[in-house]
Structure formats: structure tokens, C-alpha cells
Write a structure and sequence with these properties.
about 325 residues, single chain, 10 helices, binds beta-D-galactofuranose, six-stranded mixed β-sheet
């Protein structure tokens, strides 16, 4: 039996009443019927740790509107897996039509996704990956994060070659994202799969800055105290990069094009692209948060019973001083 969920005033995603309604849908999904009933989507978002995350949430809210036939319930897990699991369980008990979530880390999702399957509610992964049997989710919308890591290493190869430093000893430190997240695991693996081909590249240290500016600055301060000669910082998101640059400048050093320390960053949010344009960040590997329209597309396909790909990857670029100006104006986040 499908349900029509009433969202009363008060907390986001807090439901007071469930009003059963007649439907001929055997699997119990809400449908956009001729009486205009809505598709109920329960969305568990990791948090608001970064500009990227906020943009990702906004893209979902722009895509899943009432005008387009959706009733979106969002929950901010504040970077805690247990909050995501709680939200998913609440969506199951309220018999939403679809569950969408970005898994904060890869492990720990089997049980709750089995509960969603047993309740007949399709699950869509967005952004990050969950380490579960692929039968437990309908599809995944994401970026190619491993490729992002590889792009960073390929750019560094090219940059060093241009400076005739390809055979110099290069000391690298890595600001990792949330440990165990697919974003961190795959960026690390992508970069290091190529770094391993260069015996003269020395990864001195890797520490997590948890994708935040404050922690990124704190870790960079430690790196600067520990290592006398850092040539490259690989920072797995722009928010940590902002903190790292602050720490480097407070230590009396410079970053970027012609600077003391090369900065390789990820996400390519507007404020970071401005630093690319100013030459303070050498390269920014885009990770595209605009995934809401893909979500709308896959839900519509599911509504029509059409087959889905197992993964949908959004397009992304690499920004340096050479191409960034043409994209700054259009960057909305
Ligand atoms: C990447 C995404 C990461 C971003 C960070 O797919 O999961 O999480 O790179 C965000 O900015 O916090």
C-alpha cells in the first residue's frame, strides 16, 4: 500500500501523519497519478562540511521539486554514519518511494540496505560509494574519483617536465579527505598508482583534514613543523586547500605558480578557481556536485519501469591558469 506522507511544520524531514491512500501499484510505490500525487524521496546527505557538499545538496533540491512531482525529505547527518542509518530507517518506516544517500564512508551499510530492499524501496547512491552487493542499490550517480587522482598525478608529471624537474627528488604531502570515504580512497589510489612509477617522488606523509578548512590548516601546520622541504601539497578538496594555503603563508612561504610549494587541489569551486586564476593554486581537478538532474532522470526511468545503468558518471575538467578564466563566470558555487 503506497502512502501519502504529510510534512507538517517543524523539523526538516519530521513526519507527523501517514495517510494511507488507495493505489493499484502492487509494489507500493507512490506515482505521479492524474490527481497529481507526488513521488516521495527520502534523501540522507552527509553534512555541510564543504562548499562542494552544499552545492551537491542544492542541486538535488533544485531537481526534486514539487512542481516536477516530488516530495523531497532531506536529512543532514552532520558527518555521522549513525545519523545516516537513522534517517534511512525513518524513510523505510514511512514507506517513501525512493531513498537517496551519499555514504559518508564505504563500509557499514549492508544491514540497513537489506532492510530497504525487504521493504521494496529502491535505493540510489549519489556521489560516494557503499561497499555492498550491487543488488542492494538501483544505481549510482557519481564522479570518476580514481580518474581525478590520476589526473592530478599526470598534471604533476607534465608540470615537472616543463620545469626540467622530472628526475628531481620531489617531496609530497597529502591532505586526505574523510578516511574510508570512496572520495579519499579513490583519489589516494588514483594519484599513488602513478606516483609509484616515479622513484624520485617521495610521499612524506598523508593525514586526513576531513574535507574541512580548519582541519586542513591544522594538519598543514603539523606538516610544516615536521618536514623542512615540502615541494608539493596534494589536497583532496578545496576547503582543506584554503586552510593549507593559510598555514603555508603564515609560515612565510608562498604557494602556486612560481611559489615555494606546488598546490594540487580537488573540487574546483569558484573561490578556489579564483586562486587558480591568481596563481596561488597550480591546478584544480574538478569534481562535479551538480548531480540532481541525473537523480531526476534515474527516478523517472524507475517510475516508467525502464532499465538503468549501474552507474552514471558526471563530466568534469582540470583547471589551471591557462583555461580557468573562461569558466569562472559560469561557476555557480
Ligand atoms: C567528492 C565528495 C567530496 C568532495 C568534498 O565526490 O564526496 O566530499 O571532494 C566533499 O568537498 O566534502
Amino acid at each position: 500500500m503506497a502512502t501519502l506522507l504529510l510534512l507538517t511544520q517543524g523539523g526538516c524531514g519530521v513526519f507527523r501523519d501517514i495517510v494511507p491512500r488507495e493505489t493499484d501499484e502492487p509494489e507500493g510505490h507512490a506515482r505521479i497519478q492524474d490527481n497529481g500525487e507526488l513521488i516521495i524521496v527520502g534523501f540522507s546527505q552527509i553534512g555541510s562540511e564543504s562548499i562542494w557538499r552544499t552545492a551537491n545538496t542544492a542541486s538535488v533540491e533544485r531537481a526534486l521539486t514539487k512542481e516536477k512531482g516530488y516530495f523531497l525529505i532531506s536529512d543532514n547527518a552532520r558527518q555521522k554514519q549513525e545519523n545516516q542509518i537513522k534517517a534511512i530507517r525513518s524513510y523505510i518506516s514511512q514507506r517513501v518511494d525512493y531513498i537517496v544517500f551519499s555514504p559518508i564512508t564505504e563500509d557499514g551499510w549492508d544491514t540497513v540496505l537489506e532492510e530497504a530492499r525487504d521493504a521494496g524501496i529502491p535505493v540510489i547512491l549519489m556521489d560516494r560509494m557503499a561497499n555492498v552487493d550491487e543488488s542492494l542499490y538501483a544505481t549510482r550517480i557519481c564522479t570518476d574519483v580514481t580518474k581525478e587522482g590520476e589526473k592530478a598525478a599526470r598534471w604533476l608529471e607534465g608540470d615537472l617536465k616543463e620545469k626540467n624537474r622530472l628526475h628531481d627528488d620531489i617531496n609530497i604531502v597529502v591532505l586526505q579527505g574523510t578516511l574510508g570515504s570512496s572520495s579519499e580512497l579513490e583519489r589516494t589510489a588514483g594519484f599513488e598508482s602513478i606516483a609509484a612509477q616515479h622513484g624520485n617522488w617521495h610521499i612524506l606523509d598523508r593525514q586526513t583534514g576531513d574535507f574541512t578548512t580548519a582541519k586542513g590548516k591544522e594538519v598543514m601546520e603539523q606538516f610544516l613543523k615536521t618536514y623542512a622541504d615540502i615541494d608539493v601539497v596534494v589536497s583532496q578538496n578545496d576547503d582543506m586547500t584554503f586552510g593549507a594555503i593559510e598555514a603555508i603563508e603564515e609560515a612565510g612561504l608562498t604557494t602556486g605558480v612560481g611559489g615555494d610549494i606546488i598546490i594540487i587541489s580537488f573540487d574546483a569551486v569558484r573561490d578556489a578557481l579564483k586562486l587558480v586564476q591568481a596563481g596561488k593554486i597550480n591546478v584544480d581537478i574538478e569534481c562535479n556536485p551538480e548531480q540532481g538532474e541525473y537523480l531526476d532522470m534515474v527516478i523517472q526511468k524507475l517510475e516508467r519501469g525502464e532499465p538503468l545503468e549501474k552507474v552514471y558518471m558526471v563530466e568534469e575538467m582540470v583547471f589551471t591558469q591557462r583555461n580557468v578564466s573562461g569558466y569562472l563566470e559560469s561557476r555557480t558555487y
